[in-house]
């Protein structure tokens, strides 16, 4: 009887040891799998799908309607002769539909880009010689969009090149590389097929409107490369500007971790780029316009839009000279500034056209200029 008890205890001990060893092996296996996953696939950055329902270049206007149709009106719409028939909206705007299923539009001086719902970055030639897309061979094909890159969530266009961030966080570019706008990944002065610019992932990227670029890496560091429009110096390698930045915007603007908006300026006295504070509590900005977290729209400088206040008052003129931000509207979702007007997307999806200060200060105004707030007669695509 004692032998049977001892035998049973021995068997129980063996079983317990086996279960213990099995649990240790399973734990080690889980650790190995976890380690493999963390090292084999990069952490995806938190990149927001870009919302850009309106865009302006000079006096040519682009707008995405609620159903994703991309419209163009103003000057040079005949560049898109084969892309749809013109139609008149409420007797006031002659527009032309040129694409469908579009989510964001980016207009450059010579080219047009758009993102569709499938993540395709599309490009149009606007003139006989395209700076970012290259010279087309057949003029009949000029206004047919090219698919430049897939799986894109954000983009921007400069004078002669473009940038695009894919959903994995890596930055690509195409077009002119004369000033190393596309980095050192290629030595070619012209890049037809987009190339990956950096090995590291990015959170945000924007051109300076010409042949230079800014981007924010995952560690919230801000860098610049290309040729600077502020000092004419070419930087073939990215140079650091600041830390604790989460986003960059067109117009040499940067947003900090504390949601403070800064102007990026080059100071010759210090031979470096510095940040000058513009406004607190900002969530979006472009050129000389910003939207705060409470939805209010603010503007500053000579190119700002004019709303319902006296733009000839001493107070306003002082703010213009000092680039002091002024509150323009209580609520807005997005805006795009052009040569004469600024389009502002309102929360209900309507678009308000405001005259810019540059035309309001003209002593003799053109009779065709609309010098008062004007509602564009259709609704735009709403945020995702």
Q: Could you please describe the fold and organization of this structure?
A:
The chain is globular. The longest helix is centred in the N-terminal third of the chain and has 39 residues, at about 1-40. The chain has two domains: about 55-300, Regulator of chromosome condensation 1/beta-lactamase-inhibitor protein II (Methylamine Dehydrogenase, Chain H); about 300-384, no CATH class. It is built from three helices and 29 strands. The chain has helices at about 1-40, 315-320, 355-360, and strands spanning about 55, 60-65, 70-75, 85-90, 95-100, 100-105, 110-115, 120-125, 145-150, 150-155, 160-165, 170-175, 190-195, 200-205, 210-215, 220-225, 235-240, 245-250, 255, 260-265, 270-280, 280-285, 290, 295-300, 325-330, 335, 340-345, 350-355, 375. It is mainly beta and about 375 residues long. The strands form seven sheets. Strands 1-2-3-5-4 form a five-stranded antiparallel beta sheet, with no helix packed on it. The model is unreliable at about 1-10, about 30-40 and about 85-90 (pLDDT under 50). Helices cover about 15% and strands about 40% of the residues.
- Describe the main β-sheet briefly: 5 strands, antiparallel
The beta-strand count equals 29
Number of domains: 2
Approximately how much helix is present in the residues? 10-25%
CATH superfamily of the largest domain: Regulator of chromosome condensation 1/beta-lactamase-inhibitor protein II
Q: What is the helix tally? A: 3
Span of the ends, CA to CA: 76 Å
Overall pLDDT level: 81
> Reading side by side through the largest sheet, how are the strands ordered?
1-2-3-5-4
- Report the portion of residues in β strands: 35-45%
Structural class by sheet pairing and helices: mainly beta
Overall outline: globular
Radius of gyration: 27 Å
CATH class term of the largest domain: Mainly Beta
Low-confidence stretches: 1-8, 31-42, 87-91
The CATH architecture of the largest domain: 7 Propeller
CATH topology of the largest domain: Methylamine Dehydrogenase, Chain H
